[in-house]
Prior knowledge:
alpha+beta; Alpha-Beta Plaits; two-stranded antiparallel ribbon
Amino acid sequence: MKIEIDRDLCIGSGCCVAAAPRVFLIDEEKKALVVNAHAAADFDLYEAARLCPTVAVILYDEATGRRLSP
């Protein structure tokens, strides 16, 4: 799965980090970053996207490029 963070929308709430701590981190700008897109199960990635209060976590099918969430 390909993961994108819309850094204009991200408020650094940390929900994505809570859902998938090996995938995301909050940087010095208080914004989320993807550090390892393959370090969690798809369920955890969907949970990270679902929990994001600003819908800044965007998931894509890596093979087709189709947007999966949100």
